[in-house]
Amino acid sequence: MLEDTQGLHVVAQTPFAPDDTVDHDSIDTLTAFYHRHGAKGLLVLGVSGEAQTLTPDETVGVAAAYVAASNGRPVIAGVSSPNLALLAEVTAQVRAEGAAGVMISPPASVRTDEDLMAYFDAVFARIGDVPVVLQDFPASSGVKMSVPAMARLIGAFPQIAVVKEEDMPSARKVAALRATVPWPVRILTGNNGLYLPQELARGADGPMAGFSYPEMLSGVDRLMRFDNDVAGAHALFNRYLPLLKHEAQGAMGIALRKEVMRRRGALAHAAMRAPGGTLTAEDIAELDAILAHMDLPA
Amino acid sequence: MLEDTQGLHVVAQTPFAPDDTVDHDSIDTLTAFYHRHGAKGLLVLGVSGEAQTLTPDETVGVAAAYVAASNGRPVIAGVSSPNLALLAEVTAQVRAEGAAGVMISPPASVRTDEDLMAYFDAVFARIGDVPVVLQDFPASSGVKMSVPAMARLIGAFPQIAVVKEEDMPSARKVAALRATVPWPVRILTGNNGLYLPQELARGADGPMAGFSYPEMLSGVDRLMRFDNDVAGAHALFNRYLPLLKHEAQGAMGIALRKEVMRRRGALAHAAMRAPGGTLTAEDIAELDAILAHMDLPA
Amino acid sequence: MLEDTQGLHVVAQTPFAPDDTVDHDSIDTLTAFYHRHGAKGLLVLGVSGEAQTLTPDETVGVAAAYVAASNGRPVIAGVSSPNLALLAEVTAQVRAEGAAGVMISPPASVRTDEDLMAYFDAVFARIGDVPVVLQDFPASSGVKMSVPAMARLIGAFPQIAVVKEEDMPSARKVAALRATVPWPVRILTGNNGLYLPQELARGADGPMAGFSYPEMLSGVDRLMRFDNDVAGAHALFNRYLPLLKHEAQGAMGIALRKEVMRRRGALAHAAMRAPGGTLTAEDIAELDAILAHMDLPA
Amino acid sequence: MLEDTQGLHVVAQTPFAPDDTVDHDSIDTLTAFYHRHGAKGLLVLGVSGEAQTLTPDETVGVAAAYVAASNGRPVIAGVSSPNLALLAEVTAQVRAEGAAGVMISPPASVRTDEDLMAYFDAVFARIGDVPVVLQDFPASSGVKMSVPAMARLIGAFPQIAVVKEEDMPSARKVAALRATVPWPVRILTGNNGLYLPQELARGADGPMAGFSYPEMLSGVDRLMRFDNDVAGAHALFNRYLPLLKHEAQGAMGIALRKEVMRRRGALAHAAMRAPGGTLTAEDIAELDAILAHMDLPA
To answer: Which positions are annotated as binding pyruvate (chains A, B, C, D) (predicted)?
Structure first.
């Protein structure tokens, strides 16, 4: 079901209202914003979707709202958890709401190739035949997977249809994975899109990342994969790079991204739910300086 | 409400039936077993209570069942989670079911004294005036708290009524805490009870630990704290030490503890829920050898 | 002695000959290259100086060679080690060779504010009155230091004359440190210079970083701190950003940096000593593509 | 050369004089003490040998002194280091002084099976044909090795003649290794000897551990492996268990072990070199209480 996963898949924000509840109206405007700027699909409830601040009910509600707003375009939901029972329950619930698949990163307790295989054995015994995006992001998960280990895992579990590859250096790992893991497994890349031109040149099928100007991500993807316009891709990427890099600063980066998207009308309120990042006056001035000295389209 | 927390508080098991559901009948027999062997209260849903294998509904169900079986003796529920919204929701639910308090260990994202204070600020903003046991167990949590940091935390949040101290070397830390943190804050100790005589000699108020012979834990506590019979306490402790140490082996240790308690009639089935430990024939033979060469009462 | 530490301090490479020995001739050309492009001083034997591949004798030899080539400009030597006796011995030796000071990052065994203070107590008891750069780089050291803890440390040990600040988000931490730690303690910033304009705007005294075009680092520093030309600084920074970011990829990034500097004539051979990074034909092609699509001066 | 490695190999202490220099006289008495109580060989310069407080010259000096005192019985030297050049240099030096082999634990940078193989490739490229004890101690190294990965490693490098197995639960891992790795590779066990009877029952070739009563370790080994007296082995082990467990408390445990051995005349001074553990009056009283309530031979 996820075999056709290519092109930009935006890592979506979770918007909150001033009263700290989930802002469902902004889910509609965000979804339209993402799609208007080239998203083929969405990844919701990732780390930068503030999943760790939502109750299970809110979690399922956010997934359902994004599915409803997406008009048939795919929505993949992050469900990683150290608690396998919770992972399985949330998986079943978001699938019932229409999620096309789920994204899973192994928990920090996985420390060897054998642990990795055993973990996903247990996962699939519980969730069954659900299409899965395997997230490879050691900087966040603490789990380092070698390419041979990933290949064995993917060979054993055909439900793994996509890899979100964000182990560094990512372009090299994309190339090594692509040489080892056969189609139709897809490889998308994350890491805030910081190495997107290189990743696409080495065989990635598109970005799965968040950025306040998603049109850059979809544009670079198109220029590299379809138009064969490497110079154009680099030029587009480099133009946005100062902001892209500025958003790649953990929780503060998410707060900055929400603020820029608020200014662009994509959501009503930039607030993150505690304990997320908040922006000071200095942070805002710093953001304004970066934007002022970039060469952004009007 | 937890100010009188002293004496043995058993870290309770979660029993499962052969069909992998929670075995509520065995919760009744376990509770009676724990109380019969000297428990003043129970700590349910800790790591060795296999909390990470339960759905949120099952979690609350286990807490409610232990409360119902306890006839008014206190039940404290472990609610630690990297997800603060989930922690708060489960806290409210177990409190509604009658839990006397909750136990919280800071998440691995807490890395400085400032992080620690900020984390519990966020926790109490959400859960309100709930009595809390602060768990200090770096080997599991990854969070190391200094005694001054713990004292500042406890000074700032009077809801913290008890510390479960299991940082190594634990007896030294109990003494340092006791010299710094004023009454009525209570200090119980865990770490499978492996250093219980020393911890009690240095000022601990009792064990909060699991063992298949809880009468040893309550006996040592009584001999040390009330009868001033150090020789008797050491003799009792040393007699059980080979098995105590054998149960202190992570997931396999929990499986062994369940098996011994099954043999003692405390629960119907020794099974752990996946991905918990299972015992092989060699593991059973090894357990039998240890039991055979101890000098246990008939 | 390090009180005047400001402006660009280049994190220097260690050059190797084809026979895998240290290439002392290239130390001379590298030093001239760094100074020609604006370095006020050098930091040698850091992680990107491949210190972990050198024997103690080679370590001291590299420091001595950089001092000899520097004609009186300061050389600071990285001496961090989990072995305190080795740290002290190397400190004495590089000081005897003329190093202006040493840089120390706490070892991973430091986990609380108290540990931190005790560690530097032990350090200074052994090394005495040596000027020290305190490196704050949790992504590499595993040690997170809060601003209050750093301030207490600096207050207790006047030998700490400089902080190399590279905890993320770094600009925020520079501002918080600057507001807390009084002059004349200097704050330089690392992290490959990726957030240099923001760090300088928030009070940093210059970069302590490596880049194959050090003239960008010194130029941005001058434009921000002396010429008050924020627009010029951003323009200069953004022009080099695609390569700056590409070099920020761990061991592969060091290999890329050496390759670009080899092309610029700064050293004779780009090789890293094993187990350092090696570049494949694809890596070289990728580097060429990045360089081709930047707007670099001839 | 290490193929006959079986029976007790004591993890030796490094003794210090009151002036903080290495106490070479006590190396002689310690060696005699270890051999008199059943040691077939020694492991020097391990973590509990305070290797991290010695300079490279002291390191080699300690190894040489133990070799000289051992009258031909084997001495194996711990040489683990994140710095491969240092590891290789120390290996060559201790071999020149007569060490029978070296013990190596992989550094924390090893995170996958592929990393593990690459690391030892680099090690053996540098140290050549030196007999090696592979230490498997994740609680200290941070590196978890699966049994298949260890088997591949041992298959690739015949220099690995012995495994020091101390991953928990250790008895299970000994059995799995023994079933996978063919003779003549030997398996010794560490972890302070806490699970020695079980490890020997599952196929270990003896303990490689430290304890202030090494005659217990050699006695249990003999009773289990040669006399087939399981009851006798358990009885002997259980008699000493309260102290064995008390010494298993990190740096404080090493200090306690030195103190007991000082009382037994094995070394002249119990001091550890900073930043090692020091004992307070309460620690001494605690030790005395444990000893008083055990049933030790006169």
So the answer is: 208
